[in-house]
Amino acid sequence: MPTTHAVPVPRTRFDAAPPSRPATSWSPAARFAFRFSFIALVLFIPAFPLLDWPLTGWLGTVYQRVWDVVVQSTARYLLHVSFPVPHEPMDASDSIANWLMMGCIVMLALFGAAVWTAVDRREAHPRLKEVLDVAVRLTLGVTLWRYGVEKLYPVQFGGELQYRDLLRPLGDFTPLALLWQTMGYSRPYVIFAGTIEVVAAILLLWRRTATLGALLALAALTQVLALDLSYDVTVKVYAASLLLMSVYLLVPHTARLARFFVLHAPVASENLAPHFATRRANRLAAAIKTIVVAAALVSQVRQKAMGAEFGPRSPLSGVYDVELLAQSTGIAPTVFPPGEQWTRIAIESSGFATVWTAQGDRRDMLTSLDSSTHRIVLAAAPDSLGVVSGYHYVDEVTDALRAVSADSSRRLTLTYDAALGDHLTLVGRRASDSVVVRLTRWPESRITLLGCPIHLANDRPYSGVAQQERCPWYVR
User: Fold this and answer.
1) Measuring CA to CA, which residue among 120, 110, 105 is closest to residue 33?
2) How far apart are CA 316 and CA 311, in angstroms?
3) Are 64 and 90 in contact (CB under 8 A)?
4) What does the pLDDT look like over 125-134, one tens digit per residue?
5) How confident is the model at residue 286 (pLDDT cuts 50, 70, 90)?
6) Burial of 136 (0-12, 13-18, 19+ CB in 10 A)
7) Cα angle: 105, vertex 58, 385; to 5 degrees
8) Contact 212, 204 (CB under 8 A)
9) What is the pLDDT of residues 419-467, one digit of tens each?
10) Which CATH number applies to 318-441?
11) Which of helix, strand or coil describes residue 26?
12) Domain locations in the chain?
């Protein structure tokens, strides 16, 4: 009788038990480096990303309080710093407290790795490395997703340039403010940078694409750190930490990447065995990962979409020359100081206004516009709002204006013409005082940055005399 042979049925990677991993032996330097990295990342990862995950904000607060005690004790007993070190929960700035925190993490990781090496004789930690790789990939991916979404929505650098900033002398900007204005103007570039970060975040979520995602993250974060260092952006510690996380993911693949990109030699595919032995365990792990990561990503999109609501563009938005400012008697000093004459006013869609006076002063004000009644309310901006570039959410401006409007002496209500044009007249009263303001709107082309668009073909350099000729409203 003919002999029958059973034909093996192909099994999916979830059906198969993970193949026995070959016994690996790391070099002493590699073992110490991994142990140091493991301790440092375990201490660092919960410091910031817990706020990015749903329902974990309270854990981040508890974790930060523990670090507050460690930082304060280090400053007092080791460095003999007599003054208290300020440290706000979940603060990613370059504060002294955060530098001390990173120093403590490095010292604890060095000490812990030394003790670990002395008591543990194992030559490798493949399973522990798998767990750490997953934690680093998800943490870096969610963080890049957050910053990428902030760029795709007009949140991180503001929705539009503010007129008050466009009219400020360049020398008045701090390096940080200059970068923010540059990025705020370069909307296509910001979208490009945000897209790179979002794509890198998505690629980091799967092992098969994690190396490509780490390469993309390395490029994006290198640029971010270079900008932070060049323009004194106060998140250099955080940016450098994220960059080192991408380096950690790439170090095991350095030889393969060099062989492929430098030597142009073939590279064997990586063996990506399932994490668990049973199909049920692998499916359960994949489902939990999908739910948690999806919740984190969706929550970030919702938060940034809500934060991007800067309100509709005001019909009065623009820069005006003040032709007349007449008042029957003295108005409250918080609105119109006695004898003050306005020369120019810039009204922003963000709810701010800036007034330039003949005395050379510049005053920040809040505005509230009612298009149905053609009324605008002007009030002095409180110092607590911190008007710097007009980058505030609508609810912040509304709350501040409501607080100021409670005192009638600090606000002025004016009615403007229904038919808006280049010339605008506003009239209003306060008690027995009457106020008349006549304004002439600037054409936007008068502001060089707004009046001269990008050209794909340029016959002459776009600066100096050529700029003045091509932009007749160019103001020196």
Assistant:
1) 110
2) 14
3) yes
4) 988 998 899 9
5) confident
6) buried
7) 90
8) no
9) 777 888 888 876 567 888 889 999 887 888 877 777 777 666 555 444 5
10) 2.40.128.50
11) coil
12) 28-307, 318-441, 443-476
